[in-house]
Amino acid sequence: MAYARGWPDRLREIGGPDVPAALMPHCPLTVGPQYLAEIAALAAEQGALVHTHLSETRVENADTVTSFGARPAQRMAASGLLDLAPILAHGGHLDDAE
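^ that's the sequence the OP posted. Answer follows.
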């Protein structure tokens, strides 16, 4: 997270083309809730893009429920990441409510 926080300053130091900041937590199963919320706050602060995998497989969904008590999309919503219009890869196993 410290590296991500400093990235906009680093880009300004090296000059060159404008490269937007992007934060890419792998998926809600592999990133703890405190980090999802921290990533959401940092993305909002920096105006950074967010990209993550979401509901790629049924196993991922089941494992996320077992580990965290909520489906991947619910975890993303609770963290505030969905409010930031993230790029969501896959989504093949979202349900109708999601």
